[in-house]
Amino acid sequence: xxxxxxxxxxxxSAVAAARLRDAGHxxxxxxxxxSAKPATMREGARGCCSVEDSRDARRCADVLDIPFxxxxxxxxxxxDVVEPFVAEYAAGRTPNPCLRCNEKIKFSAVLERARxxxxxxxxxxxxxxxxDGVLRRAADPDKDQSYVLGVLxxxxxxxxxxxxxxxxxxxxxxxxxxxGLVVAEKPDSHDICFIPSGDTRGFLAERIDEAPGEMVGPDxxxxxxxxxxHDFTVGQRHGLGIGRPAPDGRPRYVLGLEPVSRTVRxxxxxxxxxxxxxxxxxxxxxxxxxxxxxxxxxxxxxxxATVRVDDDxxxxxxxxxxxxxxxxxxxxxxxxxPGGDVVxxxxxxxxxxx
Amino acid sequence: MTYLDHAATTPMLPEAAATLTEALGRVGNASxxxxxxxxxxxxxxxxxxxxxxxxxxxxxxxxxxxxxxxxDNLALKGLYWARRTADPRRTRVVVSAAEHHAVLDAGxxxxxxxxxxxxxxxxxxxxxxDPAALKALLDDHGHEVAVVSVMWANNEVGTxxxxxxxxxxxxxxxxPIHTDAVQAVGAVPVDFAASGVDALSLTGHKLGGPVGVxxxxxxxxxxxxxxxxxxxxxRDVRSGTLDVPGTMSLxxxxxxxxxxxxxxxxxxxxxxDDLVARVMAEVPDxxxxxxxxxxxxxxxxxxxHLSFPGCEGDSLLMLLDARxxxxxxxxxxxxxxxxPSHVLLAMGLDEDxxxxxxxxxxxxxSTAADVDAVVEAIGPVVERARRAGDALARS
Lengths: 354, 395
What we know:
Chain B: This is cysteine desulfurase. Chain A contains 8 helices and 17 strands. By secondary structure, chain A is an alpha/beta fold.
């Protein structure tokens, strides 16, 4: 096959490209430039869009002896990932930009362009197993990224290759070292690539106007004020800016965000427990299940659940309560299997109930 | 492989490579007083004389440097500083909008860090800097201008400026003028003295010499403040131990290239015209940028710069590369990202068309087979790139 290997400049995508080449594919490396004004040097371990990362990717492609190009996806990334990310926060929801990037950029804009240019598939360094259209969790449970891929449609998965899904990360690093790839010891990127400082609140504050409102306790009492619902995520404990403790002395958490009335609801931890949620815009890779396991955020947040598809989306009833379920995040549906939990589909969490 | 990127760098001439490799085994610092030093100095000075003779300069006007970027920076900054020192009112720097980044960015740096005011002289739809426009600017601001820089020939679209006319305008206002002739020397006739310019950049690797050696031709009566301080080599304008093998090889290449200009002009013009005509036959809506081919003296013989509506230049580049054809989008890169060329935008192309452009640049060893390869590939490549462009617009 003619395969386009998306190369971020990190160790995973470099080894993925190497494995694709070794598997006999005709591989071309592409680095996606996602920032209109990339920083020259990486800042710490974060980010993946600096000129230095682009050079790392090129260096790996040269070692692998595959052609390499940089594709400018900055405008698409801004329109389809960054701006919706900001808008979601402004609307009191908690988006996952990595998931959106997979859905809208890597396996949409990039895949479509690759197909038009004569490629059969896009390969990435994601940790997930994919064969015959069946997407499963990675063999390395700590690295599993099936959650951020669960949003892909069957036609998108048909053009995807994830050659690292069966390997633990340590093996991938060792392999990079054996192959002479200079990125073998490069730290993992984490957080959000377009916020290299890691300061999400500061990033949002520059882009969202202040919309001050009240912070309201369990009985409707005003316990404080805030600069805008975008400063908060459901389940957040720190940085609430409430001077005095709750009457019972227990910590308070963000329970809900109401952007229209500009209200942040806070309360004790047990009120974060969610027993049901409603999600919209489902994507199914298999027949919609009735009983399954759901995951409601990128790390953790698993529970057995009963699923009912309705006209508005999906009603999910959890067998046991989950804490910190934020509207805007995806719920991904899994069927447990010994060979790796199978992804059945996903939907976007719209509301939760206790 | 079909190499049609000679404007980026051209293969070394065999005689230049031979000169270089032979000289690499020798020892000698041209500043030393012993016999090895004398031998090195003699080699340098003979090379300097050879270069000077080939381009109509005096040997003492040849300031050896590492190449076009250094020569351009030395000219812009050195002439600016020297002129401003002599007359503090002279703080304006005039460059054409189609300059290479080595000139443009040096000018911008002077504006940001040295209190200069940068005047960017518009170019016409063919990429040419108009002497009348320069005159109009200098009529208003001539007494404030420290230096003018307008390239001899454009690296992207190949447009040749009327450098002598521009120099006349600059001098009428008492302003020194520099020209970046990196693409011109060895491609079109270049005579430093006859052109009237005060400074001229040339580099080895664009004319069949080695990378890393070039020169700034600098009139003896033109003050220039050095960028590099040290041993006082090169008239105290450019310190640094001289590269004897590189300079010898540069001289060999300059002499050979300049001697070959007439033959190359005939050969490359014919190949280039054939390439353009046949590509246009394959892709009827392709568009030639720059000077029309019926005015050959105003365009570099080896330059064919074409826009393909509906295509992304980097898609075209990638698809041609996959077929063994090496050319360029001719645009600046940030993290390797293709931005629309500032030259094409200055010529009035819209951004989409500017993005869908390719530069094929022929050189001393180009053949009819190279042209055939492009003609054979271009139709399917453009068709596929258009589909990719459509896909991107749709998705």
